[in-house]
Amino acid sequence: MFDLYTIILWLTGLMVVNGVVIYIVFYELLGRMYWKKLVSPSRIKEDVVMCGLEYSEETLSVPVSRVFMDIIKRSFPRASRIIEEGGGTSLLNNWFAWMLILLAVLLVILVVAGWI
Amino acid sequence: MFDYIMESLIYPGLVFVIVMIIFTQWLHRKITGRIQYRRGPTYVGPFGLLQPFADFMKLLLKEDVVSKYSVKFLPLIIASLGIGSLAALLVMTPLAFKPLYSGYDVIVFFYLALWASIAVLLMGLATPNPYTSLGVGRYMALIVGSEPAFIASFLVPVIIASKEYSASYSIYLTSLVSDKLWTTDVSSSIAMVIAAIAGFLALMAVLEIKPFDFPEAEGEIYWGLFTEYGGPRLAFIFFILFAERIVLPLIYVLLFLGSSWPVMISQNYILGVIVILFKYFLVFIVLSIIDNVMPRFTPTQALRFLWKYPMVLSFFALIVSLI
């Protein structure tokens, strides 16, 4: 049985060794043996084509955070409405309330740990 | 040192995962075929067994085409590390002849298991496409919904084993005593039943088994996360997703389904491994059948379901196990 720090180092090291082997064997080696010899350069290959039209703009993406927030809002409409309309904002912005909660958590931890 | 590297590269690491992927994908396709009144793969190899390998090689041998706005090199490194993390993870289990373990190594397990999800997410982020962005947004929602329940439920057996059998929050030591956890006392039994149900649902979501496959949603957002990918890069993504379907159900078997019970793996290693693999294939068959017969949730339905049921159940089980 090792200690935790040694285990983290070992497993991260093994993960990197596996990763390097996978990259070299499945990408570089097979590429050199086969597909890199078949490469035929073409301008159209690198372009983004949507609905049959070439796109030359760089901003093609929808902001991921907007998609994510939209899903969260639609999943929990009541909770997000309360937060947006200010029902919860007063409490969320109240640093005194947050510190009170932190103090209570610390006290609980101290009692559980048997320090007080 | 050499032993651990060999274990991580060959058995139960990388080569073992590749062999298991070929066999489980064949099994998955056969089950899908049977459910859809087809025969499934029959042509390549005996009983069509090598068809998944042929498809994998076909992708790997294609030309690597990347659009000019994509990140070129980073996705390959991230994907390789994602697969590497899953293969390294199995060295922590009793499947390894000389396992690597320590107290509190469950933290390392969650860290390595999350690497695969992060790799898939970053692969999607690396390409510019509205459908890819939609897929990434959906995948982020899936991670937010499923990972807390997954972590909380998989912690329950580890906590009970550490409290009752001095397993020191280790995956390996917990899996040696996981058959006893169901009958330790009443509260442990209740916690284990609830955590097993919540854990299975969270596992389905993490593995994108239907009804939780909305980040891909072929007919709806053109494969979402993977729209822009083809050739070797798509092969790498499949590699991560299929390796996840090997490693995470195996951990579920080790923690919840009594590991190698009724055989003691520390006394009879080969029979113990056979029992674990038998249980794993049962879990995999159940997952495949569910994947084939369920319709797909919308993202909102899935998130509501995950936060209402698996998350509440898993946190309840966690509290019960701590009492």
Tell me what you see in this structure.
The complex is a heterodimer of chains A (116) and B (323). In chain A, helix 3 packs across helix 4. The mean pLDDT of chain A is 82. A two-stranded antiparallel sheet of chain A has the order 1-2. Chain A has six helices and two strands. Chain A is mostly helical and 116 residues long. The two termini of chain A are 34 Å apart. In chain A, strand 1 and strand 2 form a beta hairpin. Chain B has 323 residues and is mainly alpha-helical. Chain B has one domain. The mean pLDDT of chain B is 92. The interface between A and B is large, with 50 and 63 residues.
Q: Into which percent range does the helicity of residues of chain B fall?
A: 55-70%
Could you estimate the helical fraction of the residues of chain A in percent?
A: over 70%
Could you tell me the strand content of chain A as a percent range? Answer: 5-15%
Point out poorly predicted stretches of chain B. none
Counting DSSP H or I runs of 4 or more residues, the number of helices of chain A is 6
Chain pair with largest interface = A-B, 50 and 63 residues
CA radius of gyration of chain A: 27 Å
How many strand units of chain B? 0
Q: Rough shape of chain B? A: globular
- Multimerization status: heterodimer
Alpha-carbon distance between the two ends of chain B: 40 Å
Determine the strand fraction of chain B and express it as a percent band: under 5%
